Amino acid sequence: xxxxxxxxxxxxxxxxxxxxxxxxxxxxxxxxxxxxxxxxxxxxxxxxxxxxxxxxxxxxxxxxxxxxxxxxxxxxxxxxxxxxxxxxxxxxxxxxxxxxxxxxxxxxxxxxxxxxxxxxxxxxxxxxxxxxxxxxxxxxxxxxxxxxxxxxxxxxxxxxxxxxxxxxx
Length: 169
Hints:
Elements: H1 7-16, H2 18-23, H3 32-41, H4 44-62, E1 68-82, E2 85-94, E3 99-106, H5 112-122, E4 130-136, H6 142-150, E5 154-158, H7 164-167
């Protein structure tokens, strides 16, 4: 939601970015009350699907046929807990198009590779041209890398230099 943390923030974003409103078929930014009523009536899955479809439309306009490179990065949601586990999201961002394609709920850092693999198997086909996934060391997972190669894509995983004292053990 354009990095907005409140409904009033979303409303202000709409007022400032009229080009986005036009793409959504809106003449003006919905009021805070309208946004609240709307969001109460739809499911999270419906909103996610609508945003994913919107991202696909934007991607068609911004992607010029070159291979699509997507960065995958997990983030922990501070203060958001469910059943004793801190929740997080996996962000999928198209470099060249400068566009967030999707975000996937995760439960912990070790869950990022599984969530990426699931997204790749279920959703990647909706983004034509996807050729390369980039990510940090948490994505250096054999199952994920096998799934990426099986779909005809490549991956680039950044491994950080570790403490030399740790390496000597």
